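Action item from last week, closing it out:
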Amino acid sequence: MGIMDDNRHLEETDKKYIWHPFTQMQEWRSETPIIITEGRDCFIKDIYGRWYLDGVSSLWVNIFGHRKKEINDAIREQLDKIAHSTMLGLSNVPAIKLAERLVKLVNASCVTPHAPLTKVFYSDNGSTAVEVAVKMAFQYWKHKGAMGKNSFLCLNNAYHGDTIGAVSVGGVDLFHNTFGPLLFKTFKAPSPYCYRCELGEEYAKCSLACIKKMEETLRVHHDKIAAVIIEPLVQAAGGMIVAPHGYLGEVRKLCSKYNTLLIADEVATGFGRTGKMFACEHEDVVPDIMCLSKGITGGYMPLAVTLATEEIYTAFLGEFRELKTFFHGHSYTGNPIACAAALACLDIFEHEETLKNLVPRIAILEKWLKDISEFVHVGDVRNKGLMAGIELVKDKKAKEAYAWEDKTGWKVAHHARDNGVFIRPLGNVIVIMPPLSISNEDLAGMLAVIKDAIISVTS
């Protein structure tokens, strides 16, 4: 078979055997799938030799782009030692070194008196990091004798992953309603979605009314709530919803006031995405539990971390017969190759001064967002660092959304793809999350393509 025949065989075989995530497969079967064969820097190449700028960092994970030499070398070096060994009854060198560095890193900018995060529990993706956090918080209170703390307070529009526990503390109806009968019950607080405030308030005049609603729930039900779980500053999969300044700090105060744990899900916001290493740093917040994944290995290997305070960890210590053990674990917990890749990523942050170099890129993005915010069908633009969302609307004055079946966001994405930029929308919200390492020139070029796509689709 020739190259074209090989390519067509791949396309047909994909449609025959693969069930893609978050994809309506009936439509997929009628399209020509883009099949990636190579990556380099911030670009990916398909089987026909066409290159695309990876505008969503391969679903927000490739923070340093593709084929990063330092990460490649770290993985090769680890492969010459051992690829995997269990952490049930054993440990390994990269996992130990990474845990030490992460603990120092998450506490490095802490200026608040709250207890630091000192213990690392490994898993393999964002959903499992949240599952660990939820189970950890639940069991912690049992060990403390607070038997009634069996529930959680989460936010509308929240997304914490796809496993049942993670879905239970989520709040994106589109993704989660189907599974309602399988989920445990939670308390919900309003999303800090200022553009479409569910309380009908106007930001700056509202005095953070959404926080007041959260406090009302905590005041009445704090004896039932094990933890409040939030995505600090940005509700990512919920639509790139950016919380107003001060919101995160107020959540921390409420958790301390009402004796409930705070779980910060930094799976999407961690590792430089918001302009700081972790989003919690923007308001000097230290949670009781923090979840990390996505960019932790630069998109090379599945790895996740749940960090907890010494107080939480100590509650699980006891005699064997007391059964205080945290009975949770994964086959690939603390995988040495993944940990080696993560250590290489942390080295890159230091040696390339990644956070410092983000400043001009964020400025380019924010200027562009300000410019397109004037477009007649751009209802709202929002960002924190190099995480951004552009909400497209049918009627700007009325904030009327495009109908779901119009697929306006998808049309913009397809137009951009046809012009060499791969992005993936969240409904009518255009998501921008390129690799942190993207050059100023490539960033400007990507934004120009997206701007043209918005104009072409909505005019």
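Closing note: The chain has a mean pLDDT of 96.
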